Amino acid sequence: MKFETFSPGHWQPRYQYKSFEPVPVNHDWTWEDPVVNTLLEQANRMLGELNAFSLIVPDIDLFIEMHVVKEAQTSSRIEGTQTGIDEALMSEDQIQPEKRNDWREVRNYIDAVNTAIAELQTLPLSNRLLKQTHALLMRGVRGEHKQPGEFRASQNWIGGSSLMDASFIPPHQDGVAELMSDLELFWHNEEIVVPHLIRVAISHYQFETIHPFLDGNGRIGRLLIPLYLVNHGLLAKPSLYLSDFFERNRASYYDALMRVRISNDLIHWVRFFLTGIAETAAKGRDVFRQILTLRTEMEQQIRQLGKRAPNALLMLNVLYRKPVVCAADIETALSVSTPTANALIRDFERLGILKEITGQRRGRSFVFDRYLRLFVS
Predict the structure, then answer these.
(1) Where do runs of H (alpha helix) occur along the chain?
(2) What is the pLDDT of residues 286-333, one digit of tens each?
């Protein structure tokens, strides 16, 4: 199938509405557009540079955890949650009661990402994996009664308050299983010659068009991208997430998806997607560079602490995973006494590594601000 002649599907009349029924995607894809080739080359190069950092940075998993937190917070924000990245790093009892529902959605996303990536060790990217991930995402939050972990058995819609005024109506529920089966075959079809970044671009479009779940499709669809890249070896670690790019270009993102459905313009979507891969990978590469510079500087400062330096270096590793902490976090993570934890915190305050953020005398929290700002810029 050529991009230039692609027809994405048809509008099927239903009772009082029309659903969009997409065509299968598990087949060869070609194109004549030279811009796609240039963007594909650039995206692959940037992705390779990002992946190189994930292979050479010592203790890379310390920093991957913050990438996951950032993705969870940003992807959930697209769906309307109001949890800040600093709040996502706090425990539930530190969150104001009126914000806890949003906080739980973000924490569920973190659990879902980490579990899905771990599952890839034994279970390839599949509908089974997406269903398991969806069940974790919906656990105990909005949408928990909307068939968590199962493809929908009823019609859904995007935008508007009902089917009557929806901006887009995905395919009828009776076709979801077959369409998702076709999409799964496309992920692993070795008999067709289609570059992986083209496959994942088409896959994200197709997933969002099918909208197979009653809720949570945006988050699962965005998570599909790093799962695909890790599963097929383009990334050794889950270090690339497009939610930030999609949010910063939200109108263009939704427009690009709809242009495929309405105007058959798959080329515009693929160009937009590859641009997002290249920009996001370059940004992730730069963050890793800044982390390495910051890490060297922090370790030099900590060596000034003499006999307390070994514990302080261990504490620094805790902060890379969780840059918002309280004394109890340090006690637990390092298995030290309360006085020792407080002394370490005072040392880090004096060195300018930590700063107190609550303004309280009790129950105080501290932030590794220079590190956290690398993920919010």
Answers:
(1) 34-56, 60-78, 85-88, 100-119, 127-137, 176-188, 196-210, 217-231, 243-248, 250-263, 266-302, 309-321, 327-334, 338-350, 369-372
(2) 999 999 999 999 999 999 899 999 999 999 999 999 999 999 999 999
Single-letter code of the amino acid located at 141: V
For 367, half-sphere exposure in the C-beta direction (CA atoms, 13 angstrom radius) is 16
Q: Which CATH number fits domain 292-375: 3.40.50.970, 1.10.8.60, 1.10.10.10, 3.20.20.70?
A: 1.10.10.10
* CB-based burial, 109-122: b 16+ in 10 Å, e otherwise: bbbbbbebbebeee
Dmax (CA) of the chain? 76
Q: Indicate where the chain has its CATH 1.10.3290.10 domain(s).
A: 3-287
Q: pTM of the predicted model, to two decimals?
A: 0.93
* Per-residue pLDDT tens digits for 138-191: 998 887 888 999 999 999 999 999 999 999 999 999 999 999 999 999 999 999
What separation, in Å, do the N-terminal and C-terminal C-alpha atoms of the chain show?
A: 40
Sign of the Cα torsion 245, 274, 53, 126 reads positive
Residue 244 in this model has a pLDDT that exceeds 70: yes
| Residue limits of CATH 1.10.10.10 in the chain | 292-375
Q: Residue 376: what pLDDT?
A: 82
The CATH number of 3-287 is: 1.10.3290.10
What is the 3-state secondary structure of 164-213? CCCCECCCCHHHHHHHHHHHHHHHHCCCCCCCHHHHHHHHHHHHHHHCCC
The order of strands in the sheet holding 324-325 is: 324-325, 366-367, 355-356
Tell me the C-alpha distance between 243 and 74, whole Å.
6
Average pLDDT over residues 215-238: 96
Distance between CA atoms of residues 59 and 288, nearest Å: 12
The Cα 280–Cα 283 span in angstroms is: 5
Amino acid at 207: F
pLDDT of residue 377: 63
Q: Which phi-psi region, left, alpha or beta, contains residue 34 (left: φ > 0; alpha: ψ -120 to 50)?
A: alpha
